[in-house]
Amino acid sequence: MSEADTGGEVSDPNVRETPAGKATGERTDTLLQTDDLVKRFGGFTATDSVDFAVDEGELRCLIGPNGAGKSTLLKLIVGTLSPSEGSVYYDGQDVTDLDPDERVQRGISMKFQVPSVYGDLSVRENARLPIQQFADGEERRRRVDEAIADAGLAGYEDVEASTLSHGQQQQLEIGMAAALEPDLLLLDEPVAGLSVDERDEIAERIQRLNREEGIAFVVIEHDTDFVAEIADTVTVLHQGDVFREGSIEEIEADPEVRRIYLGGEQ
Length: 266
What we know:
266 residues; alpha/beta; Rossmann fold; four-stranded antiparallel beta sheet; globular
């Protein structure tokens, strides 16, 4: 059979495509895929056979009641937790057994729920930490200045991070995670405890990074107004597994989602 007969593609029958390649390889738009992902803590199952996918450049929000397994799922993706069963595929590779720093090198970054900036270091020193891994000299100084400006912290360069407001610390840490130039950035409740104005600033920041840098996001958030503002797609977790997926309008209109999460009638 000619190349024309196969639509211009020639396959090698002796090459076996891996599960990771099928799930997230070059022939797909899928950047991340989990396959039957299970995490047990003793007798408690935090995630139960989760199949969860994120496309390149997608902005996905992850919602669900407390204890649904949302933070556990993100930690399994970034590698700070190891699964009891199942696999994590990323950009054509099986990353299930890779350490967190190896996943960062492949393009996965995460900002945890509680800001983990280094309080005794200045804003500039915090911003420099991820950037110094791949840039030095004038390039490093330029990138640090840009990261600080993007976080809305110009003028705070020499201020100790511990003295920043909670919202400013969140902005600084998002900047530190984005400075690693990830393809996928995971955010765990980035607007918890923030004012409406601070929430809007974070939303604008995420949308800009998604639009201008092409970063895909998975964002855990309870604030459905914030979710409605930023999300392309919403995934609802319940009892450790995917319960529903769709647009925020579809999710809010679903009576079963309202029952378990949004405060609808039982």
